[in-house]
Write the C-alpha coordinates for this entry.
Amino acid sequence: MRPLWTGAIGFGLVNIPVKLFSATESSNLDLDMLDKKDHSHIKFQRINEKTGKEVKWENIVKGMMIGGKYVVLDDKDFEKASAVKTKLIEITDFVKQDEIDSIYYEMPYYLAPEKSGARPYALLRDALAKTGKAGIASFVMRNKEHLAILRVSGDAIVLNRIRFQEEIRDTTGLELPKTSAKPAELKMAITLIDQLSGKFDIGKYKDTYAAELMKVIKAKARGKKLAEPLMKVVHSKTTDLMEQLKASISTKRKKAS
Protein backbone atom coordinates (compact mmCIF):
# COMPACT_ATOMS: atom_id res chain seq x y z
CA MET A 1 0.00 0.00 0.00
CA ARG A 2 1.06 3.55 -0.67
CA PRO A 3 1.25 5.83 2.39
CA LEU A 4 -0.97 8.91 2.46
CA TRP A 5 1.14 10.72 5.06
CA THR A 6 4.50 10.22 6.75
CA GLY A 7 5.61 11.68 10.05
CA ALA A 8 5.73 10.60 13.67
CA ILE A 9 3.58 9.90 16.71
CA GLY A 10 4.45 12.05 19.72
CA PHE A 11 3.93 10.04 22.91
CA GLY A 12 5.35 12.09 25.80
CA LEU A 13 9.05 12.31 24.98
CA VAL A 14 8.83 9.17 22.81
CA ASN A 15 8.94 9.78 19.06
CA ILE A 16 7.62 7.02 16.77
CA PRO A 17 8.28 7.43 13.01
CA VAL A 18 5.18 6.17 11.18
CA LYS A 19 3.38 6.02 7.86
CA LEU A 20 -0.37 6.51 7.47
CA PHE A 21 -2.35 4.18 5.19
CA SER A 22 -6.01 4.12 4.23
CA ALA A 23 -7.87 1.41 6.15
CA THR A 24 -10.89 1.34 3.83
CA GLU A 25 -11.74 0.84 0.19
CA SER A 26 -14.94 1.55 -1.67
CA SER A 27 -17.31 -1.28 -2.55
CA ASN A 28 -19.05 0.89 -5.15
CA LEU A 29 -18.92 -0.12 -8.79
CA ASP A 30 -16.74 2.16 -10.93
CA LEU A 31 -19.41 3.65 -13.20
CA ASP A 32 -18.50 6.19 -15.87
CA MET A 33 -20.54 9.31 -16.57
CA LEU A 34 -21.81 9.36 -20.18
CA ASP A 35 -23.75 11.68 -22.46
CA LYS A 36 -27.30 10.30 -22.71
CA LYS A 37 -27.44 11.05 -26.46
CA ASP A 38 -24.39 9.16 -27.77
CA HIS A 39 -22.79 7.58 -24.64
CA SER A 40 -19.64 9.68 -25.04
CA HIS A 41 -17.51 9.90 -21.91
CA ILE A 42 -18.01 13.06 -19.81
CA LYS A 43 -14.75 14.86 -19.01
CA PHE A 44 -14.23 17.37 -16.23
CA GLN A 45 -11.90 20.24 -16.97
CA ARG A 46 -10.35 23.02 -14.89
CA ILE A 47 -11.20 26.14 -16.90
CA ASN A 48 -9.78 29.64 -16.48
CA GLU A 49 -12.91 31.84 -16.19
CA LYS A 50 -11.23 34.70 -18.09
CA THR A 51 -9.54 32.89 -20.97
CA GLY A 52 -11.88 29.91 -21.19
CA LYS A 53 -8.82 27.66 -21.54
CA GLU A 54 -8.03 24.50 -19.54
CA VAL A 55 -5.44 24.86 -16.76
CA LYS A 56 -3.05 22.00 -15.91
CA TRP A 57 -2.86 20.78 -12.31
CA GLU A 58 0.74 21.94 -11.93
CA ASN A 59 -0.34 25.51 -12.73
CA ILE A 60 -3.09 25.63 -10.10
CA VAL A 61 -2.46 27.35 -6.76
CA LYS A 62 -4.66 28.08 -3.74
CA GLY A 63 -5.52 31.49 -2.38
CA MET A 64 -7.96 33.58 -0.39
CA MET A 65 -9.55 36.91 -1.27
CA ILE A 66 -8.40 39.60 1.19
CA GLY A 67 -9.22 43.28 0.59
CA GLY A 68 -10.26 42.67 -3.00
CA LYS A 69 -7.04 40.81 -3.89
CA TYR A 70 -6.03 37.17 -3.75
CA VAL A 71 -3.34 36.12 -1.28
CA VAL A 72 -1.74 33.08 -2.94
CA LEU A 73 -0.33 30.30 -0.72
CA ASP A 74 2.39 27.76 -1.47
CA ASP A 75 3.40 24.56 0.38
CA LYS A 76 5.79 26.44 2.66
CA ASP A 77 3.02 28.80 3.75
CA PHE A 78 0.87 25.87 4.87
CA GLU A 79 3.79 24.46 6.87
CA LYS A 80 4.45 27.85 8.47
CA ALA A 81 0.95 27.75 9.99
CA SER A 82 2.11 24.77 12.06
CA ALA A 83 5.28 23.00 10.98
CA VAL A 84 4.93 20.60 13.93
CA LYS A 85 1.38 19.44 13.17
CA THR A 86 2.19 18.75 9.50
CA LYS A 87 4.71 16.10 10.59
CA LEU A 88 3.64 15.06 14.10
CA ILE A 89 0.60 13.25 15.48
CA GLU A 90 0.85 14.61 19.02
CA ILE A 91 -1.04 12.59 21.64
CA THR A 92 -2.27 15.03 24.28
CA ASP A 93 -4.72 12.90 26.29
CA PHE A 94 -5.80 9.34 26.91
CA VAL A 95 -9.45 8.38 27.42
CA LYS A 96 -11.62 5.27 27.61
CA GLN A 97 -12.81 4.36 24.13
CA ASP A 98 -16.44 4.04 25.19
CA GLU A 99 -16.42 7.69 26.29
CA ILE A 100 -16.29 8.79 22.63
CA ASP A 101 -19.72 9.07 21.02
CA SER A 102 -19.87 7.31 17.64
CA ILE A 103 -21.28 10.50 16.07
CA TYR A 104 -17.74 11.93 16.15
CA TYR A 105 -16.12 9.08 14.15
CA GLU A 106 -15.21 9.94 10.59
CA MET A 107 -12.46 7.95 8.79
CA PRO A 108 -10.09 5.13 9.83
CA TYR A 109 -6.42 4.76 8.84
CA TYR A 110 -3.70 2.27 9.66
CA LEU A 111 -0.47 3.48 11.23
CA ALA A 112 2.62 1.40 10.50
CA PRO A 113 6.09 2.10 11.92
CA GLU A 114 9.20 2.94 10.00
CA LYS A 115 11.98 0.41 10.73
CA SER A 116 13.50 2.63 13.40
CA GLY A 117 10.12 2.98 15.12
CA ALA A 118 9.25 -0.71 15.56
CA ARG A 119 10.02 -0.96 19.30
CA PRO A 120 8.31 2.25 20.46
CA TYR A 121 5.35 1.45 18.17
CA ALA A 122 4.96 -1.95 19.84
CA LEU A 123 5.27 -0.28 23.25
CA LEU A 124 2.45 2.19 22.54
CA ARG A 125 0.28 -0.50 20.96
CA ASP A 126 0.66 -2.89 23.89
CA ALA A 127 0.14 -0.12 26.46
CA LEU A 128 -3.09 0.97 24.75
CA ALA A 129 -4.31 -2.63 24.61
CA LYS A 130 -3.43 -3.26 28.26
CA THR A 131 -5.20 -0.14 29.53
CA GLY A 132 -8.13 -0.20 27.11
CA LYS A 133 -7.46 3.47 26.44
CA ALA A 134 -7.34 5.53 23.25
CA GLY A 135 -5.01 8.45 22.59
CA ILE A 136 -6.44 11.81 21.53
CA ALA A 137 -4.27 13.63 19.00
CA SER A 138 -4.32 16.29 16.32
CA PHE A 139 -2.33 16.61 13.10
CA VAL A 140 -2.45 18.32 9.72
CA MET A 141 -3.02 16.39 6.48
CA ARG A 142 -3.85 17.91 3.09
CA ASN A 143 -3.77 21.44 4.48
CA LYS A 144 -6.43 20.72 7.12
CA GLU A 145 -6.16 20.07 10.83
CA HIS A 146 -7.75 16.83 12.01
CA LEU A 147 -8.68 15.60 15.45
CA ALA A 148 -8.08 11.88 15.87
CA ILE A 149 -8.04 8.96 18.27
CA LEU A 150 -5.36 6.26 18.25
CA ARG A 151 -6.56 2.83 19.28
CA VAL A 152 -5.52 -0.81 18.88
CA SER A 153 -7.00 -3.23 16.36
CA GLY A 154 -5.23 -6.59 16.27
CA ASP A 155 -1.51 -5.93 15.83
CA ALA A 156 -2.03 -2.46 14.40
CA ILE A 157 -2.56 1.02 15.76
CA VAL A 158 -5.57 2.53 14.02
CA LEU A 159 -5.96 6.27 13.68
CA ASN A 160 -9.62 7.28 13.50
CA ARG A 161 -10.26 10.80 12.32
CA ILE A 162 -13.00 12.31 14.46
CA ARG A 163 -15.03 15.45 14.05
CA PHE A 164 -14.63 18.55 16.16
CA GLN A 165 -17.56 19.38 18.43
CA GLU A 166 -18.46 22.47 16.37
CA GLU A 167 -18.95 20.25 13.32
CA ILE A 168 -21.86 18.40 14.94
CA ARG A 169 -25.27 19.99 14.64
CA ASP A 170 -27.50 20.07 17.71
CA THR A 171 -31.03 18.68 17.65
CA THR A 172 -32.74 22.08 17.76
CA GLY A 173 -35.48 22.18 15.15
CA LEU A 174 -36.09 18.43 15.09
CA GLU A 175 -39.57 17.28 16.01
CA LEU A 176 -38.69 14.70 18.66
CA PRO A 177 -41.26 12.92 20.84
CA LYS A 178 -41.71 14.25 24.36
CA THR A 179 -43.73 11.24 25.50
CA SER A 180 -42.27 8.15 27.18
CA ALA A 181 -42.94 4.52 26.30
CA LYS A 182 -45.61 2.62 28.19
CA PRO A 183 -44.07 0.11 30.66
CA ALA A 184 -45.71 -2.96 29.05
CA GLU A 185 -44.64 -1.88 25.55
CA LEU A 186 -41.13 -1.14 26.76
CA LYS A 187 -40.87 -4.60 28.32
CA MET A 188 -42.04 -6.20 25.08
CA ALA A 189 -39.57 -4.11 23.01
CA ILE A 190 -36.70 -5.22 25.27
CA THR A 191 -37.80 -8.83 24.78
CA LEU A 192 -37.63 -8.32 21.01
CA ILE A 193 -34.16 -6.74 21.32
CA ASP A 194 -32.98 -9.66 23.46
CA GLN A 195 -34.35 -12.11 20.90
CA LEU A 196 -32.35 -10.46 18.12
CA SER A 197 -29.20 -9.93 20.21
CA GLY A 198 -25.90 -11.69 19.63
CA LYS A 199 -22.17 -11.17 19.43
CA PHE A 200 -21.19 -8.63 16.78
CA ASP A 201 -19.59 -10.28 13.74
CA ILE A 202 -18.86 -7.83 10.90
CA GLY A 203 -18.12 -10.75 8.56
CA LYS A 204 -21.76 -11.76 8.28
CA TYR A 205 -22.83 -8.40 6.84
CA LYS A 206 -22.25 -8.16 3.09
CA ASP A 207 -22.70 -5.42 0.50
CA THR A 208 -25.09 -7.39 -1.72
CA TYR A 209 -26.34 -4.40 -3.74
CA ALA A 210 -23.11 -4.00 -5.76
CA ALA A 211 -23.13 -7.70 -6.67
CA GLU A 212 -26.79 -7.58 -7.72
CA LEU A 213 -26.18 -4.42 -9.76
CA MET A 214 -23.30 -6.20 -11.52
CA LYS A 215 -25.72 -8.99 -12.50
CA VAL A 216 -28.02 -6.37 -14.03
CA ILE A 217 -25.10 -4.83 -15.98
CA LYS A 218 -23.97 -8.21 -17.34
CA ALA A 219 -27.52 -9.12 -18.31
CA LYS A 220 -27.94 -5.85 -20.23
CA ALA A 221 -24.55 -6.44 -21.91
CA ARG A 222 -25.93 -9.75 -23.24
CA GLY A 223 -29.03 -7.97 -24.49
CA LYS A 224 -31.23 -9.78 -22.01
CA LYS A 225 -34.50 -8.06 -21.17
CA LEU A 226 -34.90 -7.60 -17.44
CA ALA A 227 -38.21 -8.02 -15.69
CA GLU A 228 -39.35 -5.22 -13.39
CA PRO A 229 -38.82 -6.38 -9.80
CA LEU A 230 -41.86 -6.56 -7.57
CA MET A 231 -41.27 -5.31 -4.06
CA LYS A 232 -43.50 -6.91 -1.47
CA VAL A 233 -44.34 -4.51 1.31
CA VAL A 234 -45.73 -6.31 4.34
CA HIS A 235 -48.11 -4.15 6.32
CA SER A 236 -49.10 -4.89 9.88
CA LYS A 237 -52.73 -6.00 10.23
CA THR A 238 -53.08 -3.80 13.27
CA THR A 239 -52.06 -0.31 14.28
CA ASP A 240 -51.85 -1.37 17.92
CA LEU A 241 -48.20 -1.09 18.98
CA MET A 242 -48.43 -3.92 21.51
CA GLU A 243 -49.89 -6.29 18.91
CA GLN A 244 -47.13 -5.33 16.45
CA LEU A 245 -44.49 -6.15 19.09
CA LYS A 246 -46.09 -9.52 19.86
CA ALA A 247 -46.23 -10.37 16.16
CA SER A 248 -42.59 -9.37 15.76
CA ILE A 249 -41.47 -11.66 18.58
CA SER A 250 -43.39 -14.64 17.16
CA THR A 251 -41.97 -14.13 13.64
CA LYS A 252 -38.85 -16.06 12.63
CA ARG A 253 -36.12 -13.61 11.79
CA LYS A 254 -33.93 -13.82 8.69
CA LYS A 255 -30.22 -13.66 9.44
CA ALA A 256 -28.14 -10.76 8.10
CA SER A 257 -26.45 -11.42 4.77
Q: What stands out?
A: The domain at 5-28+79-165 is CATH 2.40.290.10 (Ku70; Chain: A; Domain 2). The beta strands are 5-11, 14-22, 62-66, 69-73, 88-96, 105-113, 133-141, 144-153, 156-162. The CA atoms of residues 18 and 113 lie 4 Å apart.
